[in-house]
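Ticket #4471: structure export looks truncated?
Reporter: QA, pipeline team
Priority: medium

Steps to reproduce: submit the single chain below to the structure queue and open the exported record.
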Amino acid sequence: MSQREKERLVQGEKEDANDDLLGSVLMGKMPSMIYDDLQMSISFQGNGLSGSIPWEIGEIATLEELRIDGSNLTGKIPNFIGNWTKLTILDLQGTSMKGPIPSDHSLFINCGGKNITVEGKNYEEDLNTKGQSNFASIENRWAYSSTGVYMGNDQANYLATNEYGLNVIGAEYYKTARLSPASLKYYGLCMQKGSYRVKLHFAEIMFTGDQTFASHGRRMFDVSIQGKLVLKDFNIAEEARGVGIGITKEFNDVWVNGSTLEVHLYWAGKGTTSIPEKGVYGPLISAITITPNFEVDTRGLSAGAIVGIVVASCAAVVLLLVLLWMKGCFGGKDLENKELRALDLQTGYFTLRQIKDATNNFDPANKIGEGGFGPVYKGTLSDGTVIAVKQLSSRSKQGNREFVNEIGMISALQHPNLVKLYGCCIEGNQLLLVYEYLENNSLARALFGKEEEKLNLDWKTRKKICIQIARGLAYLHEESRGYMAPEYAMRGYLTDKADVYSFGVVALEIVSGKSNTNYRPKEEFVYLLDWAYVLQEQGNLLKLVDPILGSNISKEEALGMLNIALICTNPSPTLRPSMSVAVSMLEGKVPVQAPIIMHSSDNQDARFKAFEILSQDSQTRVTTFSQENQTQSSMSMDGPWKDSSLSLQTTDETREYSSSSMLLDKDLYDVNLL
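Actual output as written to the record:
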């Protein structure tokens, strides 16, 4: 295709983004190098194009439709259609292309090693040295993605070898391995539907079995297959009863209902991190074996048969848009899209068009809240899924690579008391986060909203909410470290005490039904917390209990929860408990002691107590710096939840949200009131 024709095509796109090339008189080879990496539909129906499908199209991970029927294309149906995990329509009718639609029924990967043959099976090499947020498609049959940065060791390798000369017992693939500091996912692409036997092969080759320092390392991680947890706190050396000994964990009934099989290994912050050297931790795997439990039909399909089963049976009533582009005309987009393809393996990627359709172009009627970074909208995707869209007010100063990595970390978090992140959208200056929609909206609205919005929460429900918030925070603090940047979580750059303080304020508000910042029983008290301190000193703390609860409440439980709230809001961060201890107290597993409140002076005016607390509390928040761009970022709970996750920087100053006065204002969106 000539340069003029390419320019004409791109110009046509600009004039009408919904046009395709149906019936256009195009001759020659199918154009290459002008495709948008994020487009969903390509149609060259009825054209005179010849040759084969260019490999560049195989790089479009978001492709949902490919229509080239009626053209003169020839050759074998390419294997790279396995990259199109979202493909729903493939129409090749009338072409001269031959061969079967590629689909796999078995997979053999030598993780971190070269091509080898074991028991007659060829294990494909996995030698890509890149790690963080990297998507590498090998032979177009499988892929992997890795999340995280090794703490204290910028030169850490993502491939492991038998450095200590261990006498490795087992097959050849046990001598090498792939590892990751946080999350490692392998994907079998274009798999046939059915039941599979999955074997995961492990051997600990980074520790020694002697009495040296290198023998004291402990590696622990979790493993999920198809989203189901199959191994918890897995320790390779312990299971194999020694280092350098191969061990296989077999799972006999793994179902593939779509076309992708996912194996996910992730570190939960347990084990050692600096033995035998800094940055030796996280999941490690030697090989993967996937074989079918069903009888395999090895017969090929003709082009006519392909048309019969063509996924185009959905027979398009509407021909979707074609977005073609000149290479480099949108400056810097190629790098961004490669990073977004990596992100798409960790969490979903949504186009701006999808988000606009879901929210009716950000209709104000769909606005359900306003947070520190921007508004939150309710939306409905084309498949009927209801979502909450967080529209960040401006583009983060982080680079795409850092943002992709952090979104990957957040999406890897799995806990029933955390809001699920479906994905994100990055287009132009738009930065959008897509979460599951919580029907009952926020706890703030339920407690402090207008009369028609309030929910009459009984004591049982309030107690349940309080415990579940505590469990979610405890998970973030103590079980999800593998998904946080290790320099935040393991080197003292992150304190959890600010979250503990904020939780105490929320617990106080849940029991009292009053806002910490808006309730002033007397002029001398600035915050609800001031009044709570006075009542606690007077021995009359139960006076805080929400009167609408009436007599239908356990006074013992209410007093216990109020005491826990005061313990968590102690002005001294060192005297606040960890969230796991708070959970144990709420569940009655640990006795609740009377709170000890430290006073800096006996004659201090209560009006300034809360400000002193917030001032001391702010000292527990530490700003960290990106090694690449020295841009500040902080840990907070902003998501649609506040003070629990990663915050994104949107101005020249780092925003921090551990202050209780901001916790329940407009952004506490994660409490699902069941």
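Status: closed, not a bug. The export was complete when the record was re-opened. Leaving a note from the reviewer for reference: The chain has four domains: 3-98+301-314, 107-292, 333-436, 449-621+658-663.
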